[in-house]
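for the record, two folds in this file. i put them one after another cuz i was lazy. first one right below, seq on top, structure tokens after. the second one comes after a little note so u can tell where it starts
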Amino acid sequence: MSTLEVTDLPVPAKDERFPSVNQALNCWNKYNEWVLCLKKNEKDESKCFLPRFNMRELCPTEWVEKWDADRGEGKFAGLQEDDA
């Protein structure tokens, strides 16, 4: 299997669910889609590269770091990897 380079990946497509310029909700959903991917793939980050890439392209670094920290402390308001 070949390794994808970031330069090989296109910019995430416009999501018609979020037509406004403010992409905060789109970012929130992309982050939760990545967490859901981790949950479905037993936390195997290599299988969730594309959702993570798309989320990182849309979301400010500060938000991602905060949400990562919140998930680590078990107080993230979105999806939890360990939810039943």
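(here's the note) second protein begins now
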Amino acid sequence: MANHLKEQVIKLYKTLLYLGRDYPQGAAYFRGRLKSAFMKNKDEMDPEKIQKLVARGDFVIKELEALYFLRKYRAMKKRYFDPEKKSDT
């Protein structure tokens, strides 16, 4: 595997591991799934295939960030929105 691809894969793994701390089903669950996904593809040597897998990992990062943002938004809305108080504007 080319050195730059190896760096990309390691960076991707570390980023996903960091994001997994706040996963709704728990960090341990996420870590196990992450490890199994990376171990499944550990013998891949085709640079194009590795690039596709890294791109898929980047997509997962964006999805996780969206999930966390939505969860935060819902918590803020629930905290500050009073459903019994309606405006008649």
